[in-house]
Structures are given as C-alpha cells and as structure tokens.
Amino acid sequence: MFANANEIDAELDIAESFMHTDTQSAIDKLNSVLSHEAELSSSQKSRLYMLISLKHLYVAEYKEADIALERALSFNPPDDILTRIYLYKVTVNIGLKDYKQAFTQLEINLARIHNYQDNSIKIATYNRLLNVYLELEAYDEMLRISRLALDLNQGKNPKNQCYSMLYYSVAHLRLKKLQQASSLFSDTEEYCAEQGFPLIAVMSVKGRAIVAYENEDYQQAETLLLTSLDGYQKFKFEVEINEIHSYLGMTYFYLGRFQQAKLFADKVNQLPIAPNNLLVKKRVNEALSLVAGKQGQFDKAYQYQVVANALSLQILNEQKVKENAYQMARFDSVEKNRETNSLMQDHELLVQQKDLFMKDKSSSIMFSTLLVGVSVGLLLLLISAWLQRNQFMKQAQRDGLTGIYNRRTGQELAENEFIEAQTINEPFSVLLMDLDLFKNINDQFGHATGDWTLKKVTSVIETIIRPNDIFTRMGGEEFAIFMPKLEQPAAEEFAERIRIELMGINTRYSGHEFTITVSCGVSTANKDDLSLDPLIQRADLALYSAKNNGRNCVVCYNELMSQPTRSFSN
After folding, report:
1. Res. 291: pLDDT tops 80
2. Which ranges carry the GGDEF domain (predicted)?
C-alpha cells in the first residue's frame, strides 16, 4: 500500500527509468503499482497503462500495446501524457502495418501540439514521424526532419537528442553515406551512453555493425554484432535480436564459418512468417542457400533460394502498401491545402463582391476581372494537384536513379505478359544481370561514379532491347529483362550481346578508368510454369552459377540437367 500520491509517482518514475535500462525490473515495478490500481488517480492510471503499452512494444506485441493505450486514454489523461499516448499509437500502427492510420494519428497529434510552447513535445512528435519515414523507406525525408529536430532541440532534452541523433545516423546509413554514418553512430553511442540511454547506445553499435558489414569488414561486423546482441538480450528486444541473428548468419558465411552461419540462420528460420519477420527470414534463407551451395548441396540451395524469393515477393507487396499509403497521405495533404486555399479565395471573393455591389456600376468591370482571375487561380490549383498526383504515380513505378521500371512494377507488367504468353503457347524468357564487383567501384571511386555506372549501363541496354521487353532494376546493381516471344537460344545470344556491349563502355567520362563486366542468368518458360516465379528462381540460380564460375559470363538454366550449365564463358 502506498503512503501518498507522491510515492506512486516515484514508483512510476522508477519503472519508466528501468524501461530504458532493465526491462524486467520495470515490469516488476509496473506489476507492483498495478496491484494497487484502486489507489491511483486518473492521471496516474493513464501513465501506468501507457508504460504497460511500452512493455508490449518492446517485444512486438502490438495488439496488446494498443489495448493498453486505449485503456490509458479512457482515464482522460493530461496533455503531456495524451501526447505520448498518441505517439505510441503511431508506433503500434506501424507495427501492425496500418500506415494510413499511422499518418492519421501523426496528423492529429501535430495539429494538437501546434500551439504548444514546449519544444520537447514537438521534437518527440518529429522523432515519431521519423519512425514512419524509416518504415516507408523515405530516407531523404528522414534526413531533413531529423536535422530539423536536432536544430530545434540543440541538446536541451537528452532523450530527444538521442533519438534524433540515432535517426540522423540511420538516414545516412540507408542513403549509403557509410563513412558519415559510421562517425555519426559512434557519436550517438557515446552521447547516449553518457546520458543514461543504453538502449539507443546499443542501437548505435548495431548501426556501426551494419556499416562494417556493408563495407565487407566482416571481422569488425562480427565483433560489433555480438556486442549489440548482448545489449539487446538484456532488454529482451526480440525484433532487434532476430535481425542481429540474421546478419550474423550472413557474416559467418562470408567469414567461411559455415557451421556458425547455419546456427544463427536456423534460429531465425524457426520464427513464424509474420510481417516483422519477412526481411530477416529472407536474409537467412539466402545465407542458408549460399552455405548449401558451398557444401555442394545444390538441391537444398535451390529450396532455400525458392523460399527467399517467395519472401521477397511478400516484402514487395508490403512495400506497395507503404508506397500507396505514403502517396495518398502526400496527395491528401495537397488536396487539403487546395481546398483551404479555395475556401479562402471564395471568402475573399464574397467580401469583394459585397463591396463592389455597393459601389458604382462602373466597378462591375473590375469585379468581372477579379472573378476571372479567381477562376483561373482555382483551375491552376486543380491542374497542379492533378499533375502532382500523376507525378506520385510515376514515381511509384520508376526507379529514381535510372528511370527504368522498379522491381514491383516490372514484375507486375511481366506477370501479365507471361500469363498472356502461356495462354497462347508463346515462348517467354527471363534474363537476370548483376554488375560484377560493383561495390569496388563505389569504394575506389565514390558513389557518384557508382551512380554514373548504373545510369550508363541502363542507357546502353535501353538502346538494344526490343520495344516489348520489360527492363527492370531489381535492386542495387541487379537488373532484369523480361522478354516475351523469345526462345532460349535467342535469349542467350541477346544476353551475350549485352555482356559484350557493357565491356565496351568507355568509362573515362566518369572521371576514372575501369572495366564494366556483368554476370547473366537466363531461363525460359516451360508448359508447367504457372507463374513468373519459377522462371525468376531458375534465372537466379543460373546467375548464382555465373558468379561462381568466375563472373563476366552468361549461364543458361537447362531443365534437362540437374544443375545450370555454363555458356558463352569469357
């Protein structure tokens, strides 16, 4: 039994403090306070259930977290607690993949705090917005908003500073600004550890680990991954633990320690197929496929790769939902601004009309002119909104760097062409290409040269593909060409032509001299194929073989053989 309200507040303060350092102790404190719920004020009950929701968020129990937050709202919390509850509801909606609702909650909260004098509440809301942008992979927006939050905070609130620093670092990582990201993560780790936010410090260690992994410094990646794993285990942060396990699976493969790679990959592979697990399960199935391939177990390698490809399709579908939610939110914002401007102009028009009515008839010309001007203004606003909507739709279909179809759109178009080809018994071939040692170009000459290479390769291929071919950037340095009405021999010859054309690119115009080579995998449909997926999987296995055979070659998957056969080797 608590002596007074201050003692209850003190217990909640301790529980909240433990939530960032010792999760189990925080849970024990919360359970202790919960057993005396009848003694709590409404404000204290709101805070208690808000902290209970945070406990559920740490272990990805989003529905339970949402129930606790609804319970917290039922006690009419004060403004500061209410704001935090709405922020956590945004996190819940992100976890539940309800991005439209996440944007709605953010909009409600941003409207509520517009007139607040306390910048810390505004900054906390910006940080929650950053989480949405991270989920939507809108990394340029992340960079802009995190910089805004840092400038607004200026170190006054350590907790907000830590979160803003972390998101600023992550934005650099996702934008492949690896050197800057590594330095920023180190600064964040040091600052947040000193300020008593060890969980954010652990997240920063993980960020440094991913930078090391991307830089192919696998020894350093292993050390940092194990350090962050130890930190996450203290918090029982299952979502992050699973991601660390998936990275360790890949890292140990590249270190040649296949048994350990399989050990960590199997941990993740035992997880259920759920939205939060798709990416990590895809990563470990790729690791298991690579391990099996190295050990000569090609049947297993194929099976793991099939699972990885299936998970990739699910991830693409999730990305489609994200893109649509993001575009609709942006478009809704444009529409609301247009409607507001229209109402304001209509109001001004009525005022002016009343004034003009009271004046001489000679002023009717002025009124007519004004009316025409307002009508033109409204028309321009409508045209602007329409153009912006079309722009969003185009951006959703095209790769931002090269201008060709992105993976989702390319595969959707190709699937339609494939179904039509199978219906009328016409051939259909798939070519997967991967630029050889592309990372070396980025590392030696910089990312600007890497971007030049991707755009140059794209422009060369666009000059030689047929009008009905579907040219797609699958991600990174990997491309695909879906080729209706093309038999296997012709597809192989076309792939070889591309290989030769790319080798002949004059790279001096990039400011550096180097040779561009590409590995290619080709597959052709057979009568048993019911969708595009088997073709992509077979082409991917052929590409895998091309890489293993020394790169800079074309390999065609031959259904009559037990494994892909090499052709057009260089």
Report:
1. yes
2. 426-559
